[in-house]
Amino acid sequence: MGTRPAAAPERRGRDRRAGARQPRQDELVPVADAASVSNRGPQQYDHFADIYGVWTETASSTRANLPFYVDAYLAAQGPVVELGVGDGRIAVRAATRGCRVIGVDTSTAMLDLCRARATRARVTDCVDLRQADFRDFTLTEPADLIALPYHSIGHLTTLDDKRRALHQVFAQLRPGGRFIFDDFLMTPALITHMRQVQLRAMYPSSSSSPTPSPGASTSRSPEQDTLLWVTSLVNESSQTLTVVTWEDLLHPDGRLDTRRYRRLSLSWLLPTQARQLLDDAGFEVEACFGDFQRTPFAETTAVEQVWIARKPSTHSANVRTAT
Question: Read out DSSP for 38-77?
Answer without folding.
Answer: HTTHHHHHHHHGGGHHHHHHT-HHHHHHHHHHHHHHHH-S
